[in-house]
Design goal:
- Its EC number is 1.1.2.4.
- One of its GO terms (molecular function) is iron-sulfur cluster binding.
- Helices cover 44% and strands 15% of the residues.
- It is an alpha/beta fold.
- The chain has five domains: 99-267, Uridine Diphospho-n-acetylenolpyruvylglucosamine Reductase, domain 3; 271-481, 3-Layer(aba) Sandwich (Vanillyl-alcohol Oxidase, Chain A, domain 3), CATH 3.40.462.10; 537-629, no CATH class; 633-680, no CATH class; 708-938, no CATH class.
- It is globular, with a radius of gyration of 30 Å.
């Protein structure tokens, strides 16, 4: 019986003294921040975002004082409910990003908030990587990877966290910090925690004294197993620190908080070869898996199985090869990989594998490749199965993803058993079987409708019978997704009474009150696995397909300010659910809050679309809502009707501000307007880097000696303003482009009446005005280019993207693309010593044209760095002035990144973004044309 007092009100009040404005008790953020990738829906009482270990220690102490159970959350990509909470949820993500390469790449120290793929990016120069390689590596944090003992497609049991851990830094419930890489920390722990040490060593002693139990533990970990605590740590190691190091792996945050990890890295073997084989039946594929597994890791390092439903699901994707679309019904595939330090060995391995599998009948000819571009496309199919299948499910259904593991000799029978359960419980439709078959590890998806009592009962019965039958095989109920809530009631079923009692004692040693992540791993509730299941309300078709996996979050500029794309979609579902239940008061509260959290602070950059396996463009939510009732439609019409006057007024406004700047400093103006914006929410913020007025007169630049022509549409922002203040070149962008074209012998033609033209982006919420603006510009460009005879260049990437999408019949170039293709070939370029950081504007990234600006920078200097701290700066045109907190949140790490590189200049192709970049970064950001003009002269 729990003795916890659960004083959430006191906790929330006192937590604000620790984390200030990062404590959330409103329904909107409690729900949004409580969403994870699992099939469970829990609403935390309080959510706190911790930024460092010191805060975590204080929060742990406060939770104990208030008797409030608490759960740690990393990326929320876990699938089994291990980071869901109905109590206090402590999110440890953005403040825990430090990494340090150790021993020339042989080890990596990283805090728990580091994304797995970012860790590997840091290790690339050393030709090494971390061992675990889950399919979620691009979004999962190492804290979650370690706490779930996630393995992956290639690492198996040989290179998972258990095998590659060097040390951890952990905060225990009493606030003790144990850093197992620090001799002094270890000595202090041994001195101050003798009872804990003795109890853990006593467990080891009892296990070793029981031959049957010792044998069971050794046997169970010959295959992947993440069911319950890592009992193998108690038999594999005798030193208490080694035991603790490994006991925390896969503990799912139920024993303490792991703030830092040191991984022994593994070599990224240079030569790889893959095979994609298609078998007539799933049974034939499983026979091939057994054969591959028996060849050993020196021949095969990975083998992924995909049943027919998996292949069918991915057939609709654009990048899927045609042969996948043409496989006969019933076909199942195996994707395997071999690798070595020599190409010759890879050749030999591929030949050996072909020969060994030649007697298993195939449906279509098998494919083999050592071309990374080709086999990476095959792996992309495998990695996308889970979300793709989720996206194709019936409306209103929830994706359930389970993973089990069999001894390899039982693999074929195990597959037959799962198929039988699909039919028995009516989950054939939407059910798929795939997974890391080389390890005997199988994932499967089912898509029940939890608003349907029959589906709900079938789900519960399937999980229970599956647990019974997998346990009967001597398999693992969980192989890498973690125990969580999903199989917590069945840990004893798999392990037996004696081993389960060891699990309970481990929990009691570290958390006797079960205050830490209750009902995960250890539970007294036999039905917890089928409670609080997500009921998926049907919303717009474009977003209903979202399965809340969280892949989209990494690049979202508002992720640390308000909401992520996943959370925006989840809130729409929650609002719909409340309305369906008749709770219109709370639904109305969420809709009101959504105006700021879901609409105003969405940059509409669509960076989420590029990360989403289903290409969901969450920006369309905000864009569509902005069009519903846009402010002052008559004013928008009047502005466009008098566009040249509007720009003159903008220039005058900047000039007036400049006059003020002669009396008080620009920095003071910025501070004043920041305060006003904070009070009114309407008054625009004036950044310190706000540019001066541009009064340069545009006229055609044509010489009889020139041999090419270009139509140059200079956008309204660049016609109104000069570049970012702080740069030593005071020319307008038009003057610089004219200078470059003059060197390259290219005539410039400006569209007639350019002062009245706009690409329409500023009016996209006003359909009538937008349509006029696009048509007027299209007609002007068509005329200037003599019906498309001449190429067109646009000098702001956001406007280029807009025109590019709406005018497909014209050859329109972004400024960087134009300079690379048309200008650079006619220049002599001499590199300078400038250390340049490159901003790739989000809209050109979405069009796969971002390489041009980097290429230009590299032509001008040997010291070029790409911004890595964000994907979109969140300035988003006018939002930099009216929602400046979005830009500031997105670019908060830019100054540190610039300092790390020693960058002296930033280049971009978006003059509005340059304003925010310059202010946040502390160095001038200018159009890349300025750098090119400075470093070039006409070719002799």
């Amino acid at each position: 019986m729990s003795t916890l007092t659960r004083d959430y009100e006191r906790f929330a009040k006192e937590a604000k003294e620790i984390c200030k404005d990062r404590v959330y008790t409103d329904h909107l953020r409690r729900y949004a921040y409580g969403v994870d990738a699992s099939c469970y829906s829990y609403l935390p009482k309080v959510v706190v975002k911790a930024e460092d270990e010191r805060e975590v220690r204080r929060l742990i102490r406060l939770c104990q004082q208030c008797g409030t159970p608490f759960t740690f959350r990393a990326a929320g990509s876990s699938l089994s409910g291990q980071c869901s909470s109905e109590d206090v949820l402590i999110v440890c993500n953005d403040g825990f990003k430090k990494m340090e390469v150790i021993d020339d790449g042989k080890a990596l120290k990283c805090e728990c908030g580091v994304i797995g793929s970012d860790a590997n990016d840091l290790l690339k120069p050393y030709n090494r990587k971390i061992g675990p390689d889950p399919a979620t590596l691009a979004t999962a944090l190492v804290g979650g990877i370690l706490n779930n003992n996630s393995s992956g497609m290639c690492c198996g049991t040989a290179q998972n966290s258990y095998k590659t851990i060097r040390s951890i830094r952990v905060v225990l419930l009493d606030g003790t910090v144990l850093d197992t890489s620090d001799k002094k920390s270890i000595e202090q722990f041994l001195r101050e925690k003798p009872q804990m040490v003795e109890e853990i060593l006593q467990l080891r002693k009892e296990i070793l004294a029981d031959e049957e139990l010792t044998h069971l533990i050794h046997h169970k970990y010959k295959i992947k197993n993440t069911t319950g605590y890592g009992l193998n740590s108690l038999v594999d190691f005798e030193d208490i620190i080694d035991i603790i190091n490994h006991l925390f792996i896969g503990s799912e945050g139920t024993l303490g908080f792991v703030s830092e990890i040191v991984y022994n890295t593994v070599e990224d073997v240079p030569h790889k070869g893959c095979g994609l084989m298609f078998f007539k039946t799933l049974n034939d594929a499983s026979l091939a898996v057994v054969a591959l597994a028996n060849m050993g890791r020196d021949k095969v390092v990975a083998a992924e199985m995909m049943d027919y439903q998996s292949l069918k699901a991915v057939q609709t994707l654009e990048n899927v090869p045609d042969f996948v679309r043409e496989v006969p019904e019933g076909t199942s595939a195996i994707l395997f990989q071999t690798e070595s330090y020599s190409k010759e060995t890879v050749d030999e391995n591929l030949a050996f594998i072909k020969d060994k599998l030649k007697d298993i009948p195939t449906a279509i000819p098998s494919l083999y490749s050592q071309d990374p571009k080709e086999y990476d496309s095959w792996w992309a199919i495998r990695k996308g199965i889970l979300p793709i299948v989720g996206g194709q499910r019936r409306k209103g259904t929830t994706v359930i993803t389970e993973d089990v593991c069999f001894q390899i000799e039982d693999f074929t029978k195990g597959i037959e058993m799962l198929t039988e359960l699909f039919h028995k419980y009516d989950f054939v439709d939407g059910g798929v079987i795939f997974g890391h078959a080389l390890s005997g590890n199988v994932h499967f998806n089912i898509t029940p409708d939890f608003s349907d009592p029959k589906d709900t009962k079938n789900f519960g019965d399937l999980v229970k019978e599956m647990s019974e039958r997998v346990s009967g095989f001597g398999g693992s109920l969980k192989a890498e997704h973690g125990t969580g809530r999903m199989v917590a009631p069945f840990v004893e079923m798999e392990w037996g009474k004696k081993a389960y009692e060891i699990n309970r004692r481990i929990k009691a040693i570290f958390d006797p009150e079960r205050i830490l992540n209750p009902d995960v791993m250890i539970t007294d509730d036999p039905d917890v696995y089928k409670k609080n299941l997500k009921a998926q309300c049907v919303i717009d078709d474009a977003f209903t397909i979202c399965m809340e996996c969280g892949f989209c979050e990494k690049h979202c500029p508002s992720r640390n300010l308000t909401l992520t794309p996943r959370q925006r979609i989840a809130l729409l579902r929650e609002t719909k659910r409340l309305e369906n239940e008749g709770n219109f008061t709370l639904a109305s509260e969420l809709r009101k809050g959504y105006e700021y959290f879901g609409v105003d602070t969405c940059a509409a950059c669509s960076m989420c679309k590029g990360l989403c396996p289903l290409s969901i463009d969450t920006a369309q939510i905000a864009l569509s809502m902005r069009r519903i009732d846009p402010p002052a439609p008559e004013l928008a019409k009047k502005i466009y009707d008098n566009f040249s006057t509007t720009l003159q007024m903008c220039r005058a406004g900047v000039s007036l501000e400049g006059i003020a700047g002669s009396i008080i400093t620009q920095k003071a103006i910025s501070k004043i307007t920041e305060g006003l914006h904070g009070v009114t929410g309407v008054t625009p913020y004036v950044p310190k880097t706000t540019p001066k007025a541009n009064r340069y007169k545009l006229k055609n630049r044509i010489k009889p000696t020139n041999f090419e022509k270009v139509v140059y549409f200079s956008t309204c922002a660049n016609r109104a303003f000069k570049p970012n203040q702080g740069y030593d070149d005071d020319r307008s962008l038009q003057q610089v482009v004219e200078s470059l074209c003059n060197k390259a012998h290219i005539d410039i033609i400006y569209p007639q009446h350019i002062e009245n033209l706009c690409c329409g982006l500023s009016f996209e919420n006003y359909d009538d005005v937008h349509e006029r603006a696009v048509k007027d510009l299209h007609d002007a460009l068509m005329k200037a280019s003599q019906n498309g005879k001449y190429p067109i260049v646009i000098d702001h990437s956001a406007c280029f993207n807009h025109a590019f999408k709406h005018m497909p019949d014209l050859e329109i170039n972004d400024i960087s693309e134009f300079l690379c293709k048309y200008v650079v070939p006619h220049l002599d370029i001499e590199k300078c010593d400038e250390r340049v950081i490159v901003h790739k504007q989000c809209k050109i990234k979405s069009l796969n044209k971002s390489q041009y600006i980097e290429d230009l920078a590299r032509l001008c200097t040997d010291h070029v760095f790409n911004i890595k701290s964000f994907a979109c700066d969140g300035f988003a045109g006018q939002k930099g002035f009216f929602t400046p907190e979005l830009n500031k949140a997105a670019t908060k790490d830019l100054a540190g990144e610039i300092a790390e590189y020693g960058a002296t200049l930033g280049v971009s192709s978006s003059s509005t973004c340059e304003i925010g970049l310059g202010e946040s970064g502390g160095i001038p950001f200018v159009g890349v044309a300025f750098l090119l003009d400075r470093c070039s002269k006409a070719k002799q």
